[in-house]
Design brief:
This protein is of the alpha+beta class. Helices cover 51% and strands 13% of the residues. The chain is built from 16 helices and ten strands. The longest helix is centred in the last third of the chain and has 30 residues.
Length: 457
């Protein structure tokens, strides 16, 4: 990827982070009250709690990350995400997701992971003050679900199903079946139903539920209690509005990343993108030539190699010769003595093998092997491809010299790579222009709280 495109991607993605991957970091000094607005975007508040939490997570990956840059990123994400949902709709934005979880479940999990990462020590401290000194002390196990109760949700075991999804009627019935009860720290009782668990599963999880894996159901119910505690603790500590605002920030981030994927950018640039396909088809031959001229180093290939080989009748012989070569034996001498190939007398010389040719009298797979070898290094013994039950000789190769060149400027491979790269640049430029336009048109007010908390603790 060209440097300008990389910079555009960083600007669009900003300090995107995966909350569960980083440890907790110190809170910034002089942090504004959680429920105070750090900014207002077209009149809607972006709370200081969201800015400070996002900044702390950004600093875990980059200690020099600035709060002002984090605030700018969150504002831009809020505008881009809203525009993306308006243009494409949530269903289209998330249609290409491979994780199998719904958008809501993925965002909820990110929220819990973020809060636990930032405030886990304080949560653990408060848990230690409970009578049982832990989350397990809150649990109130419910009676195991009977086969008959599970039948009302999943049907009879062994029944033929088109898929493992639950309809609304099944989920309503599952909502009546309690897997686990728990005491709330501030009084009252909560419960986790089978529906609470079922709604949060991907394909593998739904298969486990239909298989009536009760241990899996209980494990998932316990995880739901742990997630509930994280959200409840955070809401009591910072206010429900602050937690909801942070969730919206994470939803914005996820939707912007989905928007980037629609434009053929992001984590998986090889995933399909209809927009990228359209832009690539519009790239002209002149644009391909220009890209090739400035990125020629990307199209280096091995033009030819000068090589030798030793052909041996079986694995035992190949291992013996390989050991001798590893001990310093001369390759050409070993070829003359042990190779069964017609070129043994010449020390196994294959001469110069070009990129678009085959070694004389040898199949194409040997050429591929030669082009993967570093010069001066003897390969491991490789069995010749052959059908089942057939005796197959073994090969050991040595590349003595390698000459590099460039793919032809008018080749199909250059056209494909260059057109996709130019299309990505065009898509990134479109997103950058959209970002700039949204920021220009929006009414953005940075409050005193938005400018507070200027330095790390």
């Amino acid at each position: 990827m060209a440097a300008p495109l990389a910079r555009l991607l960083r600007m669009l993605a900003g300090a995107a982070w995966v909350a569960c991957a980083w440890p907790a970091v110190a809170a910034p000094a002089q942090a504004a009250p959680a429920s105070v607005a750090a900014a207002r975007i077209d009149g809607a508040p972006l709370l200081a709690f969201s800015v400070d939490s996002s900044w702390r997570m950004a600093r875990a990956g980059d200690p020099d990350a600035q709060r002002s840059a984090t605030l700018e990123l969150l504002i831009a994400n809020r505008l881009l995400a809203g525009e993306a949902r308006k243009r494409f709709g949530e269903a289209a934005l998330w249609a290409g997701q491979r994780v199998g979880f719904t958008r809501e479940v993925s965002i909820d999990d990110q929220l819990v992971s973020t809060l636990r990462s930032l405030y886990g020590k304080e949560m653990e401290h408060d848990l230690q003050q409970l009578p049982g000194a832990g989350l397990d002390s809150l649990l109130r196990p419910a009676p195991p679900l009977s086969d008959a109760e599970l039948d009302t949700v999943f049907g009879k075991p062994g029944a033929l199903r088109l898929d493992d999804s639950l309809g609304e009627a099944q989920l309503a019935q599952a909502g009546k079946l309690v897997l686990l009860r728990f005491a709330k720290p501030d009084g009252g009782e909560g419960s986790i139903s089978l529906a609470d668990v079922a709604r949060r599963q991907n394909v593998q999880g739904r298969v486990a539920l239909f298989a009536r894996q009760r241990d899996f159901m209980q494990q998932q119910a316990r995880l739901r209690v742990a997630s509930w505690y994280v959200l409840d603790w955070s809401a009591r500590r910072f206010g429900a509005a602050s937690v909801a605002d942070l969730r919206r920030v994470l939803a914005d981030q996820s939707d912007v990343q989905a928007l980037m994927r629609l434009h053929g950018m992001g984590d998986d640039q090889h995933a399909g993108s209809r927009l990228l396909d359209t832009l690539a088809a519009q790239v002209s031959a002149a644009q391909v030539r220009a890209y090739y001229a400035r990125q020629r180093a990307d199209f280096v290939r091995i033009e030819r190699v000068r090589a030798r080989h030793i052909r041996l009748p079986d694995e035992a012989a190949a291992r013996t010769v390989a050991a001798a070569l590893a001990g310093g034996a001369d390759f050409a001498a070993m070829a003359r003595r042990h190779s069964t190939a017609p070129d043994a007398a010449s020390g196994g010389s294959l001469g110069w093998v070009r990129h678009d040719s085959k070694p004389a009298g040898n199949p194409g797979w040997l050429a591929h092997l030669l082009f993967t070898q570093a010069p001066g290094q003897v390969s491991a013994p490789v069995r010749t491809p052959a059908g089942p039950g057939r005796n197959a000789p073994w090969e050991i190769v040595l590349v003595e010299e390698r000459v590099q060149g460039y793919q032809a400027a008018d080749s199909e491979s250059v056209r494909y790579v260059a057109s996709r790269a130019v299309a990505r640049e065009m898509a990134a430029a479109q997103l950058a222009a959209l970002r700039a336009e949204l920021l220009r048109k929006a009414r953005i007010e940075i409050t005193r709280a938005g400018m507070a908390g200027a330095g790390p603790a």
